[in-house]
Amino acid sequence: MSQKYKFLYFPMKAVGESIRLLFHYSNVEFEDVRVSNEEWAKMKSEMPWNLLPVLVVDGKHQLSQCLTIFRYLAREFGLVGADEFETAKCNEYIDAMDEVRLDVLQMFRESDPAKKAAIKKNVVDNTFPKAWPKFNGILKRNGTGFLVGEGVTCADIYVAYMVDLLTGFVEFSTMSDYPELDDHRKKI
Ligand SMILES: N[C@@H](CCC(=O)N[C@@H](CS)C(=O)NCC(=O)O)C(=O)O
């Protein structure tokens, strides 16, 4: 692997952190550029979709959209399972987790405190109790401690990171109801 990677995102965790984790897990060097608000005002118009994250490969190829970048790097770093079906299962779990993320994201897009509280309640009462047993069951059935196959894939990294991040946002305190998922989060 001889590519040079530069990863541009804001100085926050959010979805960009899942991409940084891929680099760190794979021990691949990258330039971790954390763009300030002042810098962003000057560079926004030059970005392909006027949004971050953006990955720059070898100083010339720009790639946007977080999950596109995540999946591209996962393939480059050999974290997409043993065959095409396992790769598809990784994508299934990443997409399912992204639906959970988008539910939580609504909270941050809402400025009215009452509406924000209602979104949070929906996440705690509906989104998590529907999603977490599914992921818990997948881990139980696979029986290897990983979501797909017998070792770490990008799905483990995305799901474990998002469980950690999203439960933290809404102070969800009953992860112990989902022991396989909670252990997986801690292990990964
Ligand atoms: N669909 C895009 C969304 C990216 C996005 O919303 N980026 C936000 C930060 S998380 C952004 O660039 N905000 C700055 C702005 O809109 O000026 C992706 O998945 O990468």
From TrEMBL:
The keyword Transferase applies. GO terms for molecular function: glutathione peroxidase activity; glutathione transferase activity. Keywords: Transferase. Its EC number is 2.5.1.18. Residues 3-81 form the GST N-terminal domain. Residues 83-188 form the GST C-terminal domain. InterPro entries: Glutathione-S-Trfase_C-like (IPR010987), Glutathione-S-Trfase_C_sf (IPR036282), Glutathione_S-Trfase (IPR040079), Glutathione_S-Trfase_N (IPR004045), GST_C (IPR004046), GST_superfamily (IPR050213), Thioredoxin-like_sf (IPR036249). Transmembrane segments: none annotated. It catalyses: RX + glutathione = an S-substituted glutathione + a halide anion + H(+). GO terms for biological process: glutathione metabolic process. SUPFAM superfamilies: GST C-terminal domain-like, Thioredoxin-like. It comes from the Eukaryota. The keyword DNA damage does not apply. PANTHER family: GLUTATHIONE S-TRANSFERASE (PTHR11571). Belongs to the GST superfamily. Sigma family. This is glutathione transferase. It comes from Folsomia candida.
